[in-house]
Every structure is written in structure tokens, then in C-alpha cells.
Amino acid sequence: MKIAFIGLGNMGSGMALNLQRAGHEVVGFDLSEAARQLHAERGIRIADSAQNAAQGAAAIITMLPASQHVEGLLLGHDRQAGLLEHLNAGALLIDSSTIAAATARRVAAAAAAKGIHFLDAPVSGGTAGAAAGTLTFMVGGSSATLERALPLLEAMGKNIFHAGDVGAGQTAKICNNMLLGTLMIGTSEALALGIANGLDPKVLSEIMRRSSGGNWALEVYNPVPGVQENSAATRDYTGGFGTDLMLKDLGLALESAIAARASTPLGALARSLYAAHSLAGHGTQDFSSIIQLLQENAGQV
Ligand code: NAD
Question: Where is the 6-phosphogluconate dehydrogenase NADP-binding domain (predicted)?
Fold first, then answer.
């Protein structure tokens, strides 16, 4: 199947490569020249625009930073027509970015008007999961469209959940990321406390991992450099999930909480802490660098 893959960043990179490994004809596009060059070197056919990548594609997958990028690309901006205008009726459009559920519903409605089948299919599992093809997909849309998309999703992921109608995948994703954002702060706080009291972070991490505090951050995403060989922390907080992306997701969670009159006190506090961390210049670093905020504060007290 010919697949257009738009957005070859930290996540899109591994996902596009896995689709190609599964035997699909992948044509990629990214606004960044560096990303285009890197993926051409990795053997992915690169187009010179999103429109050319999507030409004649049976499926189009987008993996972009935020709502405004997805909306701008697909629906258009500054009086420029969006990509939807150039897609054939019957095409399958899968957006795996984490965006507002309302934006996903807007794009789905515009796609449906052109006979294009849309799914919101955000993911969890990090860049390691994207590279290994073990992502979790949280899908919103019709069962029939999901059935059509399954072979593609299975080439990139291990667990595929149907969360409900269009937008439901995004809602599930922000609930998960609100939990992850708070979990990373809690884990960082506990590790910083142990380190400040003279404990070896490797030893403390292993104790908590095997105890009642055990969680995903301690398993595969330790925030202390050097504790895990393949963590973003050990790579100087690069190549993972950016602080600004976590900040965006916690903002989406807060908006959903306000709309539904839900109480999310820890999510709101977590958003403020990542915002302070971003303002201090760490927006593009991996979100696990939030431990530095806690350690810097501890040093000042
Ligand atoms: P990223 O910033 O590394 O990659 C996004 C890419 O999109 C960039 O290369 C950028 O140049 C490109 N882009 C932006 N606008 C474009 C456009 N109009 N046309 C073509 N390319 C465009 O981000 P990422 O870490 O890959 O995350 C992508 C999405 O996945 C985000 O919504 C993020 O919240 C979500 N996500 C990320 C992770 C993670 O661990 N990094 C995990 C789960 C979900």
C-alpha cells in the first residue's frame, strides 16, 4: 500500500521506518530540511511537499507536534487550501499526533464531507516504542475504519485500543499523559530526596522499582542521568518527549477538565511545574529533566 507519512520527528521517524519494513511503499515529508535529509539517508522516499507525498496514497498518516499544525496542514491556513482538498475520496487519514479532541472532530467532519475516512490514533510508548514497533494506539473513529487501518497500526504498535468515536482516542491519550506527567514529577521528587540524603540513585531506583512505588518511569524512563543506559536522561535529555510537548498535553487535559467541570488538582499543579521548567529554558529538553527543577529548588532552600 502506498502510504504518505507527514512529520518525521522523534516519533514519526521510527513509525515510518516500521511501515516500510512491513513492506509498504512509504513516501515521507517533513518541514525540516534536516529531517528530510536524515530519512532519505535511511532509505525513505522523500517528497518535496506534503501534497506530493500524498499524491495517489491510499493512506496518509500525520505525526505533528500540536493541534495548530494538524489543522493548518489538513484544513489550510492563510487562505491556502489544506491537504484534504488534494486527497482522493476513499482515502484513509490517520492522525497520530496528540491534539485536542475538538480539533480531531473538526478534521473528521471536513474529511467526511470529502469522503475521506478519518481516525484519531494517538500513541504511547515513547521514541523507544516507536523505533521497536511496540506503541500503544488509542483509536477514535468507526469500527469499519479501524478495521481497515489495523494492518498499518499493527506494523507500528503492539496494543491497539478502540476508545470510541472520533476524538475518544485523544481523550484517552490526555488522561494517560496527565498521569504520566504527575508520575514523572513524583518519581523525580522521591529520587531527588534520596540523592539529597546521600543515597545512590541506581540503588534507590531499583528498591522503588521493586516496591510499591514501582512505575513506568522507574522501569524504562529514569530521570537521573546514568541510571539507565538508554534513557533520555543519559543522552543529556535529548531524543525523547520534549518538556513543551508535555506542557501542551497538560494544557489539553486542563481544557478538558474545565469543559467537563472535572477536578484535576495534580494535573493543574503538574502543568504549572512544567511551565516553570520550560520558562527556565528547558522546553526542548526531554520532560524527565523536570528533576532538575526539583534539585535546583532544593539547592536554593
Ligand atoms: P517532534 O517535534 O520531534 O516531531 C514533529 C515533526 O513534525 C517535526 O520534525 C516538524 O518539523 C514536523 N512538522 C511540523 N509541522 C509540519 C507540517 N506542517 N508538515 C510537515 N512536517 C511538520 O515531535 P514528536 O516527539 O515526534 O511528537 C509528535 C507527536 O507525538 C506530538 O503530538 C507528541 O505530543 C506526540 N507523542 C510524542 C511522544 C514522544 O515520546 N516524543 C510520545 C507519544 C506521543
Answer: 2-164
List of domains in the chain: 2-164 (3.40.50.720), 171-297 (1.10.1040.10)
Helix axes 10-21, 33-41, angle to 10 degrees: 30
Question: Which positions are annotated as active-site residues?
Answer: 173
Cα(72) to ligand 1 centroid in Å equals 14
The CA 39 to ligand 1 mean position distance, Å, reads: 15
Distances (CA, A) of 295 to 9, 194, 219, 300: 30, 11, 21, 9
What pLDDT, in 10s, does the model give residues 14-60?
Answer: 999 999 999 999 999 999 999 999 999 999 999 999 999 999 999 99
Q: Which of 77, 271, 261 is nearest to 174 (CA)?
A: 271
Residue 244 CA to residue 250 CA, distance in Å, equals: 10
Q: Which three cell numbers stand for residue 95?
A: 492522525
- Residue to mutate (ligand 1; options 29, 61, 63, 159; most atoms within 8 A of CB): 63
The rounded distance, in Å, linking the Cα atoms of 262 and 256 is 8
